[in-house]
Write a structure and sequence with these properties.
Blueprint lengths: L1 H19 L15 H23 L6 H32 L10 E2 L4 H22 L6 H33 L3 E2 L16 H5 L2
Parallel strand pairs: 1-2
Helix pairs in contact: 1-2, 1-4, 2-3, 2-4, 3-4, 4-5
């Protein structure tokens, strides 16, 4: 199943990040571009993992306002990278299944494969960090128990989401579903579409 591969790579990424555990560490993709989907999945989850920690940092109530603004810009850039990677992953699947004979009664999903994979990557981060909390030795028994309950739910969600993604890919491969790649067409970074940026040209 495709998600077995994806979940394994996401775990590799998260564990690799936490060896140094800093948002400023260099990125190195162990999967060459010739292994395209593995390369994309690794990069996608790395972006998500760094952004997860950006979001932790910016919630520090004592953060310097100038540093916060710099970090907000980094988060914005990371969000754009994340969206771009989703589109690259969907383009991979579009190319992979381009020869499939789509059935006359085929339907389109509300969510493309890559946006489901995006959620799976974020879920891997939730599982990792909730497990940290569920096993944190300096936390109270009540805290660990509550986090263990949440962890069990997250693990169940991962099984369900993985099954849904694999089913969708199977349906596309069999011609029962078809897919499109929709560009996100974000407006707030475009100096022609964002009125604040446009007014400063």
């Amino acid at each position: 199943m495709f998600t077995n591969k994806a979940n394994k790579i996401f775990q590799e990424v998260i564990e690799k990040y936490h060896v140094i555990n800093t948002v400023d560490q260099p990125f190195e993709n162990p999967y060459p571009k010739s292994d395209l989907i593995e390369h994309l999945l690794y990069r996608k989850c790395w972006i998500d993992t760094v952004q997860w920690h950006y979001e932790d940092i910016i919630r520090d109530p004592q953060i310097d306002p100038v540093a916060a603004l710099t970090l907000k810009r980094q988060i914005d850039a990371s969000n754009q990278d994340r969206t771009d990677m989703v589109e690259y992953v969907d383009s991979y699947f579009l190319e992979k299944y381009k020869e499939v004979a789509v059935k006359n009664n085929a339907t389109i999903n509300t969510e493309s494969p890559a946006w489901g994979i995006d959620r799976l990557s974020i879920l891997a981060l939730k599982v990792y960090h909730m497990n940290e909390e569920a096993t944190r030795i300096d936390a109270s028994d009540a805290h660990r128990a509550a986090c263990k309950t949440k962890l069990d739910i997250l693990l169940e969600q991962r099984v369900d989401l993985s099954t849904a993604i694999d089913t969708l890919l199977s349906d596309i491969e069999n011609g029962d579903k078809y897919m499109k790649v929709y560009k996100q067409m974000k407006m707030y970074n475009d100096d022609e579409l964002n009125p604040v940026l446009r007014s400063q040209k």
